[in-house]
Amino acid sequence: MATTSDIRKGLCIRFNHDIYKIIEFLHVKPGKGPAFVRTKLKSVTTGKTLDNTFSAGHKIEDVRVETRTYQYLYPEGDTFHFMNTEDYNQITLSKDSLDSPDLLKEGETVTILFNAEDNMPLSVEMPAHVILEVTHAEPGVKGNTATNATKPATLETGARINVPLFINEGDKIKVETEKGTYVERIKE
């Protein structure tokens, strides 16, 4: 058993007869009244997110997890195929278990969390950043640089994100997977 002081991002807990992964949390100590922890939880079975507030010191049942390294192979409908990099076993996971499936490139190495009790996959943790090629971007408008002007761009995985005006088709860019935002252009 853990308490609210053990809450951290990525922790898997048993809550409302389901297993949830903590996406965000905030410890709040108001001037009046007791402290509490505001959390955003994502169900590892359904992919739905919910907000919940735990009072300080509340007991939570954490789920023991094991992490294993897998390589992303290919998508098939709403399922994604992964291969264990150590024993080459393959597993398929639904699109709901991935936080940002549109940024996943074939051959990318990810970490998959497994429930240590029944060996079921819980969720896929993407690397912090991925490098993707821009496949389509409208040309930037000259003189439109007074502020941080951006334009939509399509990446090789099909994801659409906003990039600065100087990014062109064929450029490789670094994308933050958690927020799905542009970080920098990669020079070759």
Structure summary:
The chain is an all-beta fold and 188 residues long. The chain is built from no helices and 16 strands.
Tell me the β content: over 45%
Biggest sheet strand order reads 1-6-2-3-4-5
Give the name of the CATH architecture of the largest domain. Answer: Roll
Number of domains: 3
Helix content: under 10%
Query: What would CATH call the class of the largest domain?
Result: Mainly Beta
- Unreliable runs: none
CATH topology-level name of the largest domain = SH3 type barrels
Number of DSSP helices?
Answer: 0
Query: How many distinct beta strands?
Result: 16
Compute the separation of the termini in Å: 50 Å
What series of H and E elements makes up the topology? EEEEEEEEEEEEEEEE
The helix/strand class is: mainly beta
Largest sheet: 6 strands, antiparallel
Which outline best applies? flat
How large, in whole angstroms, is the Cα Rg?
20 Å
What's the mean pLDDT score? 84
Domain Translation elongation factor P/YeiP central: 67-122
Main location: cytoplasm
Domain Elongation factor P C-terminal: 130-185
Protein name: Elongation factor P
